[in-house]
Amino acid sequence: NAGVTQTPKFRVLKTGQSMTLLCAQDMNHEYMYWYRQDPGMGLRLIHYSVGEGTTAKGEVPDGYNVSRLKKQNFLLGLESAAPSQTSVYFCASSRGTSGRNEQFFGPGTRLTVL
Amino acid sequence: AQRVTQPEKLLSVFKGAPVELKCNYSYSGSPELFWYVQYSRQRLQLLLRHISRESIKGFTADLNKGETSFHLKKPFAQEEDSAMYYCALSRNSGYSTLTFGKGTMLLVSP
Questions:
Q1: Which of chain A's residues have a Cβ under 8 Å away from the Cβ of B49?
Q2: pLDDT interval class at B1 (50, 70, 90)
Q3: Could you please report the per-residue DSSP string of chain A?
Q4: pLDDT tens-digit readout, B41-83
Q5: Would the CB atoms of A58 and B97 count as touching at under 8 Å?
Q6: Chain A residues inside the 8 Å CB shell of B43
C-alpha cells in the first residue's frame, strides 16, 4: 500500500496564478485533511472532509478551496496564489474521527509563491 | 477553544541524558492527547497517544488533567531521537480534528 500520496512534491508559482494539489489515499479512510506547516507555527488545519462529497473549514481556510468527489481523493485549490501561501502543505487521512484514530500523513508539497 | 502550547522551540541534549518535551493544553472538556514525530526527510507519524498508555521507542507521556499537561519523557536520549515533535489535542467525542502545538525540535548530540 502506498498510504497517502501527494502531487506535486514541489511547485513554484507567481502571484495570482492558480493550482491544485492532489492528495490520494488507498486505506479506505473516511476522513481527510489539509494542513500547512510554517516555521514557528506548527501545523494548521486548512480544510477537512468527513466523507465523500463533504468538506468543512479548518483554522486557516481563507484563500483555499477543496473538493472530495471521490473517497480516495482530496483536492486543495489555490485560485489566486499570494506570497503568504508559501508553505509546506501536508495531506492526512484517518479511519474515523481524530479523537480515537491515528492520522496518516503524506510526504508534503513545498509551494513557493513569488 | 482548544489550544496546545509547546514552550520550547528547541531542546538540545547529549546522548544518554534524560529528555522531557513539555506540552500544556487548554480545553474545557475531556481531551485526547497525542505526540506526533517528524524525523528528517520523513513524513509526520504518530508516536504515542495517552489513551494507549504505552511506551514507544522508550518514550512515555502521562496525561495530568490537574496541570493540563502531557509531557513527553525518555530517560536516556539517543542520537536517532533527533526530530521535530508535535503535541496534539482532540475532543474524545463527535466529529473532531487535531489541534497541533508549534512543535519542539529535539537535537541529541553524541
A1: 102
A2: confident
A3: ---EEEE-SEEEE-TT--EEEEEEESS--SEEEEEEEETTTEEEEEEEEEETTEEEE-SS-TT-EEE-SSTTEEEEEESS--GGG-EEEEEEEESS-TTTS--EE---EEEEE-
A4: 899 999 998 877 788 899 999 889 899 999 999 999 999 999 9
A5: yes
A6: 4, 90, 105-108
